[in-house]
Amino acid sequence: MINKKLLFSAACAGMLFFGVCLITLGAVVPDLKDTYGISDLEAGTLFSILPFGVLTGSFIFGPVCDRFGYKFLLSISCVCMAIGLEGIAFAPTVLVLNSCVFLFGAGGGAINGATNALVADISHTNKGANLSLLGVFFGIGALGMPFILGLLQHHFRYTVICAATGIACVVLGALYAILSFPESKQQEKKTGIKNKYLLKESFLWLIAFFLFFQSSFEAIINNWTTTYLSSRIQLEKETALFGLSLFVTGMAVMRLLLGSIFRTAKKVRLFPLLFGLIALGILCFTAGNNFPSVATGLVLMGAGLAGGFPFMLGYLGSRYPSASGTVFSIALTVALTGNILINYSTGIIVQYYGVRHVATIAGTELVFMILLYLFIIKKLKP
């Protein structure tokens, strides 16, 4: 018998570990540089490998879940994350370390997609609200891992902390292996032919490209905020990092509100509010010449972006219930592609035209998100 509350809790645990996945590498890179004697260029290679791993996991999880169910995919993904963490802790060479980082990312990407699809499948109503609550645990993982490393770094080496986290991943994988999940939705061998028709669905592509800009917006804020704050208003690195944590906190708190107080509110009414928060946040971020105003902008941007992924994935889960894994896989793959491409392009723009244009890029992305949303709303109308 399927216990939906238990499955939701297990999905939240998986999302928490995905948050840990995305933040761990950046948190331990200084230690890795000391351990392996790698240069900044080689460290940059690690940062490039991780998103490609996440992209790979996001690409494969959907068809696998729809064809074979969630149990196998989630269990194997936890093992991949565990191997990756143990490799980050104990890899004998840089080559092995690179391979482990890829496995780490692939497992995390698959868990991210599969847990979202699972929650959408077990939520017959309020899919967006439940996906928002799920997203809160991503924030907890992303904020919690640096805190744990900072708290324990004077007592344990990073290797011990990463290894212990890897063991926790194995425990989660074992839990997935014994839980009862919904049956696979596509047990026929001709599912590949049926899935080809999904590629012609304009509604799917509108949402995928909305998430393309949403994901890249989040990426440029995560990756360029510290540089922006350090150069524009001469903040110290520690203060700039605190400002970045406010962005994640704003997103996590708003997702908690969207999954509770605003649980039954119509998304059509919430999106204009969210877009308004983003616009106001960009204004504070750009015009502010002191930390309080810029910090306010970061919180507002995080809060405004909170509804993008859960609400849009909720729309997909409702429109394509028999292929939710596959459509989530397509949408998340497009989103992560945007993350990589726009982030790379931002680096070029910053190098030649200055870091102030981070806000310009963010504003441009908001315009595209609003335009795509208007087309999506038209498709939602009967």
UniProtKB/TrEMBL annotation:
Family from the record: Belongs to the major facilitator superfamily.
Name used for this protein in its record: MFS transporter
Ranges of residues in domain Major facilitator superfamily (MFS) profile: 7-381
One GO CC annotation: membrane
Membrane topology reported for the UniProt record: Multi-pass membrane protein
GO MF annotations in UniProt: transmembrane transporter activity
Intracellular or extracellular location(s): Endomembrane system
Top-rank lineage group of the source organism: Bacteria
